[in-house]
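Private note to self, pasted from the team thread so I don't lose it. Backbone tokens:
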């Protein structure tokens, strides 16, 4: 049976600011055996793709922005979700959202940024990986020239990230859902999740019926971990580990155990 591996990125494949050579080699062997590997991440496509290539990680698909964008092994965008501009504008006015040190809006090939304080990680990552950031003002939020499929926030305190997420979900949960991830918050359409991202990927590529191995480490990974009886890593919080079928030391260890 065809096996499809779906790995989260930050905290799962990318840990301690590196993708290990062991993990990269395990992915190579996994794909050489005829199985498929992809990353299901909250990151923008243009920030994730160059990092994977830097570490020598090849892939068959990417589901970026928590499933808001799906691309193939040639980095061609196959599908993109949409958050209505009026919703982006309205969310930006919420009191707890405004504590964020940036408002980041993800499109296919660039990020639009405003309400940003000096030192926000978005500028740092963009400069390191040569990814285009377009500065805007808050007046521009509801008439950006491209489809926006994820709205991201950043906080210095995880409690602030959680509180902002709860406020977004309480006011706009019928149209979007906010996922807290430590000090970050990803806001995506309410019908999008990492579980949905995997299901949509299977349909797009004709891989229905494959055996799915999903692995992650945070709240936004729970939909795919629970939906596919998936796994987590040893560095995940106990609350996440308790939801997983098995805990592995690394993504490579999961692949090797199921090869």
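Design output:
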């Amino acid at each position: 049976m065809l096996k499809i591996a779906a790995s989260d990125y930050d905290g799962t494949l990318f840990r301690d600011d590196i993708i290990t050579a062991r993990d990269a080699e395990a992915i190579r062997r996994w794909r050489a055996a005829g199985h498929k590997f992809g990353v299901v991440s909250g990151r923008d496509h243009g920030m994730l793709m160059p990092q994977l290539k830097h570490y020598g990680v090849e892939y068959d698909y990417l589901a970026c922005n928590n499933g808001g964008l799906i691309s193939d092994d040639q980095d061609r965008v196959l599908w993109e979700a949409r958050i209505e501009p009026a919703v982006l504008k309205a969310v930006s006015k919420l009191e707890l959202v405004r504590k964020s040190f940036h408002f980041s809006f993800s499109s296919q090939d660039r990020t639009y940024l405003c309400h940003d304080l000096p030192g926000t990680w978005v500028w740092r990552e963009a400069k390191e990986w040569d990814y285009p950031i377009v500065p805007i003002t808050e007046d521009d939020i509801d008439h950006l020239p491209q489809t926006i499929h994820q709205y991201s926030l950043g906080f210095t305190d995880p409690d602030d990230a959680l509180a902002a997420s709860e406020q977004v979900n309480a006011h706009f949960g019928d149209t979007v859902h906010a996922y807290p991830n430590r000090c970050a918050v990803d806001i995506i359409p309410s019908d999008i999740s990492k579980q949905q991202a995997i299901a949509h990927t299977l349909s797009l590529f004709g891989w229905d019926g494959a055996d799915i191995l999903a692995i992650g480490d945070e709240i936004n990974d729970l939909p795919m971990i629970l939906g596919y009886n998936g796994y987590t890593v040893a560095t995940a919080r106990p609350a996440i580990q308790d939801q997983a079928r098995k805990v592995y030391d690394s993504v490579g260890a999961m692949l090797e155990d199921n090869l």
